[in-house]
TrEMBL record:
Residue ranges of domain Ribbon-helix-helix protein CopG in the record: 8-45
Species of provenance: Rhodoplanes roseus
Name of this chain's protein: CopG family transcriptional regulator
Biological process annotations from GO: regulation of DNA-templated transcription
Length: 95
């Protein structure tokens, strides 16, 4: 990982156990990966870069209204979902 800083943190036992369980289940490769993902999501929300969920919901509502009113010529839900996944993957950090 380029430009990293090593830190030592203390966690409550229940949270530490939850991190270890996530690794044991195979959800993550290490407890450090869990912490990095959690901090990445925190940083998006608190330091900018996360989508404005209110604006996003308004756009979805507008699109659904257009669909219901017949103002949409082509609607391919699978293509839309795939575009969302691709966009989300580009924003997610590689562990």
């Amino acid at each position: 990982m380029p430009d990293t800083a090593q830190m030592t943190i203390s966690l409550p036992q229940d949270i530490a156990a939850a991190l270890e369980d996530a690794v044991e289940r195979g959800d993550y490769g290490s407890t450090g990966e869990v912490v990095r993902q959690a901090l990445h999501e925190w940083a998006l929300r608190h330091l900018g870069g996360a989508p404005d969920l209110t604006a996003l919901k308004a756009e979805i509502d507008k699109g659904m209204a257009d669909l219901a009113a017949g103002r949409v010529r082509e609607f391919d839900l699978d293509r839309i979902v795939e575009r969302g996944r691709t966009s989300s993957t580009r924003r997610s950090p590689s562990a």
